[in-house]
Write a structure and sequence with these properties.
The complex is a heterodimer. Chain A is mostly helical. Chain A is about 75% helix and about 0% strand. In chain B, about 35% of the residues lie in helices and about 20% in strands. Chain B contains 13 helices and twelve strands. In chain B, the strands form two sheets. In chain B, strands 6-7-8-3-9-10-12-11 form an eight-stranded mixed β-sheet, with helices on both faces. A four-stranded antiparallel β-sheet of chain B has the order 2-1-4-5. The chains are: A mainly alpha, B alpha/beta. Chains A and B meet through helix 9 and helix 10 of A and helix 3, strand 6, helix 4 and helix 7 of B. Chain B: InterPro entries: AAA+_ATPase (IPR003593), ABC_transp_ATP-bind (IPR050319), ABC_transporter-like_ATP-bd (IPR003439), ABC_transporter-like_CS (IPR017871), Oligopep_ABC_C (IPR013563), P-loop_NTPase (IPR027417).
């Protein structure tokens, strides 16, 4: 019974968060002075479009009838969202859902790969540092971790483009595929996609891993110092068994929620990353939408990023009990 | 060979060096244990009592080979355990065997158990190590019967739980069971009952002694509470060792040591333990000149207790008394020697 109410509470909270975000964006865009629709109207009128046509266009762009009351508009907007209609992009002259549908898989690919690599490196490297705590290896690694963590990923990205793209000409400087390669289930496609993703992923991983490495190191040192590890050593268990069965599992557990939420945060970080690498994922389109004041597209992508983050936290909350037995009996842990 | 005690510490010293820091230019040496000898027999109980920081835990850890002594020898059945460890001994036993026969129970049972494993798998581990030929169901049977024995029934229910689902007393029973399943010769119980409710302490001590007979093991029982140490030692028919600043002030059978303390420090400890003191002596002034423990980095000259000892005389400040072994006990005080320059020397002034 307790457990059920826990899941129920989490679910309600996730739905509520998404709803609040939608409502706030809806309100903000309409309340801002010189909002997008005014902007668009002015632009179209300057271009010499007739006022009645302008109204019709705005209506189709945003599922909005300008002469309706704000509540009616809100109702229309919400029903449209629930049926999966995010409106029409001003810029691309395409439905927002189509643009997101095309771009999202690429962003998810880059970001999930980056986050996975960050955690694989963090767990392995951090564990080694903890194991050799105080050694030169530990010292050098700690300094390097802090150094890399202090570099913004877009700065590293530009450096990588200059070095590997322009000077060494080893890797492409942008775009998600070569012009000649068609998406499909071919080896060529896969290799080309990886080729284009290496630099963005590298810049995310190198700058993102530092803090996680240090977190893992701290966790592992704490576990290594606990009595149950000492007793296991004393029983003469092999180092291998101790490091896997006793240390690794207890040190990795606290990082699990961090892992899921980082995926969510990184989707938001894609805006700058994909602009630097001219990588047409959702972040790239978000940036274009910002520049062109393409509000439907902007809101659509904003919504996707928010939902992704909320889902990540939600999944973390729901699954933590499965991997850490302590959560089941009450002292619950929450990601956020 | 058979005359060798199970475990013997010969003139053992453990010194820790504080490395010179930014502000201090000289490194300091903490004498945690200094020139101490003790032996533990099969099925023995040795309790160590003393103030915080007197070296009880360091001595215990040295005895079970967790801490390397800076001087002296620790022998297990006559073999120096550290030369076995370094491969310099021709003894026909391995470090692994020694390691497994000397086990420990920590004070905090909660942190001694891996939070991510069920009791069954926690207890399976030592069994798998000691009896690799056992099948899964046999192992399970043994664990169930041991759990029943330590008073955790229904065993199947407890075996299926995680450590955090047990009470502190139950956790400590699991820890004890896990140590016993290694079939050790010596278990170091480092304040093993201090974290438990007072009502559970006696029960836990009884359980430890009951299982001692079954598993044929010895205990080194570390406690800061003289009355617990007395109970445990008395029922286990062993010795109490009173430690002061890294040395054994007095060793003897429980009853003798408490009824007729030879060392002034033992009297002080007895005075400080309410349920022991109240019996025959009315409450009185602190039988000690100073409350503060001297710095173990720079221990007092002569007898280490002379700065606080109510009976101290000039001789105590100059000369360090050697332990005087009697039949079953040993006292490190001039007052236990009928002929000593102590008796002719002047008492120390109050403010010394």
């Amino acid at each position: 019974m307790r457990m059920n109410s826990y899941y129920l509470k989490r679910t309600v909270r996730a739905v509520l968060t998404v709803w609040i975000v939608i409502t706030i964006t809806f309100g903000m865009i309409r309340l801002l002075p010189g909002g997008p629709l005014e902007q668009l109207r002015g632009k179209l009128l300057r271009q010499g479009v007739s006022p009645s046509r302008v109204n019709a266009m705005i209506e189709s762009y945003q599922n909005v009838q300008p002469n309706q009351s704000i509540l009616e508009q809100y109702y229309e907007y919400m029903t449209a969202l629930l049926t999966g209609d995010l409106g029409q992009s001003f810029l691309q002259k395409e439905p927002v859902t189509a643009i997101i549908g095309d771009a999202l898989p690429w962003t998810v690919f880059v970001m999930v790969m980056s986050t996975l690599l960050i955690f694989v490196i963090a767990i392995g490297w951090g564990a080694l540092m903890a194991y050799w705590e105080g050694s030169t290896f530990d010292l050098v690694s700690s300094s390097a971790s802090i150094l890399f963590a202090a570099v913004p990923f877009y700065v590293l990205g530009i450096v990588l483009i200059i070095v590997f793209g322009y000077q060494l000409e080893l890797l492409p400087t942008g775009h998600r595929l070569s012009p000649t390669v068609e998406p499909g289930l071919s080896l060529l496609f896969v290799l080309d996609a990886i080729d284009h993703a290496i630099l963005p992923i590298t810049s995310m991983v190198l700058t993102g891993a530092g803090l996680q490495v240090l977190a893992m190191r701290g966790n592992a040192i704490q576990v290594l110092g606990s009595d149950f590890v000492r007793v296991a050593r004393l029983r003469g268990l092999s180092d291998r068994r101790i490091s896997v069965r006793y240390v690794a599992r207890n040190a990795i557990l606290p990082m699990y929620t961090g892992f899921l939420t980082l995926i969510g945060f990184n989707l938001g970080g894609s805006i700058i990353l994909e602009e630097v690498f001219s990588y047409p994922g959702i972040g790239y389109y978000m940036f274009q939408a910002l520049e062109a004041r393409d509000y439907p597209l902007m809101m659509g992508i904003f919504l996707i990023i928010t939902v992704a983050l909320v889902m990540a936290v939600y999944i973390a909350d729901l699954t933590y009990g499965l991997i850490d037995p302590r959560v089941k009996s009450g002292d619950s842990r929450e990601a956020y | 060979m058979s005359t060798d005690p199970l475990l013997r510490l010969e003139d053992v010293a453990v010194h820790f060096e504080n490395e010179a820091g930014l502000l201090t230019d000289e490194s300091e040496v903490v004498q945690a244990v200094d020139g101490l000898s003790l032996s533990i027999e099969e099925n023995d109980v040795v309790s160590l009592v003393g103030e915080s920081g007197c070296g009880k835990t360091t001595l215990g850890k040295t005895a079970i080979g967790l801490q390397r002594p800076t001087a002296g020898r620790v022998t297990y059945r006559g073999h120096d355990i550290w030369s076995v460890r370094d491969g310099e001994s021709d003894a026909d036993l391995s470090w692994q065997e020694i390691r497994q026969s000397l086990q420990i129970i920590h004070q905090d049972p909660g942190s001694s158990l891996n939070p991510n494993r069920r009791i069954l798998s926690i207890l399976s581990e030592p069994l798998r190590q000691v009896n690799p030929e056992l099948g899964t169901s046999e192992r399970r049977e043994r664990i169930y019967s041991l759990l029943e024995r330590v008073g955790m029934s229904p065993a199947q229910d407890f075996a299926d739980r995680y450590p955090h689902q047990l009470s502190g007393g139950e956790q400590q029973r699991v820890v004890l069971s896990r140590a016993l399943l290694m079939n050790p010769d010596v278990i170091l119980a480092d304040e093993a009952i201090s974290a438990l409710d007072v009502s559970l302490r006696v029960e836990m001590m009884d359980l430890m002694l009951e299982l001692q007979a079954v598993f044929d093991t010895s205990y080194i029982f570390i406690s800061h509470d003289l009355s617990n140490a007395r109970y445990f030692t008395q029922h286990g028919d062993g010795k109490i060792g009173v430690m002061y600043l890294g040395q054994l002030a007095e060793v003897g059978p429980a009853e003798q040591l408490i009824e007729d303390p030879q060392h002034p420090y033992t009297s002080v400890l007895r005075w400080a333990t309410p349920d022991l003191a109240a019996v025959d002596t009315p409450p009185q002034e602190l039988p000690m000149r100073k409350i503060d423990v001297p710095d173990p980095i720079d221990p007092p000259s002569g007898c280490r207790f002379h700065t606080r000892c109510p009976e101290a005389r000039e001789h105590c400040r100059q000369t360090d008394p050697k332990p005087v072994p009697a039949e079953e006990s040993s006292v490190r005080c001039f007052r236990a020697q009928s002929t000593s320059p102590y008796w002719d020397s002047e008492p120390l002034e109050e403010n010394d």
